[in-house]
Amino acid sequence: MVKSAYEISGADRPGRWLVTVDHASNAVPDWVSGGDLGLPAADMDRHIAYDIGALGLAQGLGAALDSPVIASCFSRLVIDPNRGELDPTLLMKLYDGTVIPANARTDDADKETRLDRLYRPYHAAIADTAAQRTAPVICAIHSFTPQLKARPPRPWEIGVLYAADARLAHPFIAACRAQGWTTGDNQPYVGHLPGDSIDRHALRHGRPNLLIEVRHDLIDTPQGQAAWAARLAPVLQQILADTGL
Question: Which is nearest to 138 in space by CA: 219, 83, 204, 75?
């Protein structure tokens, strides 16, 4: 059961980073189709429902960076917080070849309810937390599936996505490659979408930012999440210091 649209860890931590996890959970509120989107449990445990390992990685990073973490508490299949409100993929009816039965029956009123009860409170929490901090740096944590259906395997360990603002992205990519990690430059996806989380909370405010994607087979266990948090945190701190942002 989803009791809140979001959770905040370490709200009082003084670090400059604000770590966000848009796709932290595969939970479906009981007021959405009785808590069942019509998919088998095996599909709800897949990447189509949430970013596997992203929450644990983000929590480890937040602790290491002494900074807060804000995570969604609902599946992206209910409504996707990393899309603008007018984006046609905000409420997905087909994802990676899988039809989402409950979403096929939705109307504008259903979408508005999900926006009001989940999407907007989550974004309000990020906006409020960022506004209360001095010179926040937004770090969005995601994970990506090693291979989509009928597509070639993805070789990257880490992907870094950016669009107009690459002040942290470029040095972070270089630092990751220097560590020997196979790092994608706008891979496995390209840039950002208008109205997405980075656009909304970083680009529109001129805040330094990063969107990091980690291949989820590397972080699908607590041990993997802890290991990658320990690897990434000092790199993040170093590039922030080096850029002087």
Answer: 204
3-class SS of residue 33: helix
For residues 22, 24, 25, 26, the Cα torsion angle rounded to the nearest 10 degrees is 80
Whether 1 is in a domain gets the answer no
- The pTM of this model reads 0.96
User: Where are the extended beta strands (E) located within the chain?
Assistant: 6-9, 17-21, 69-72, 94-95, 98-99, 137-144, 158-161, 183-185, 209-215
Q: What pairs with residue 18 in β-bridges? A: 138
Show the tokens assigned to 16. 């400059």
Name the H helices within the chain: 41-44, 54-65, 101-104, 108-114, 120-131, 169-178, 197-201, 222-243
Q: Which residue range is the domain that position 109 belongs to?
A: 6-243
- pLDDT tens profile 176-186: 999 999 999 99
pLDDT in tens, 185-215: 999 988 778 899 999 999 999 999 999 999 9
56-65 residue pLDDT tens: 999 999 999 9
User: Where residue 98 sits, what CATH number does that domain have?
Assistant: 3.40.630.40
Cβ contacts of 182 within 8 Å, gap of 6 or more: 155, 156, 157, 158
Q: How many domains does the chain have?
A: 1
Q: In 3D, which of 236, 191, 200, 25 has the Cα closest to residue 125?
A: 200
In a domain, 80, yes or no: yes
Residue 203 domain flag = yes
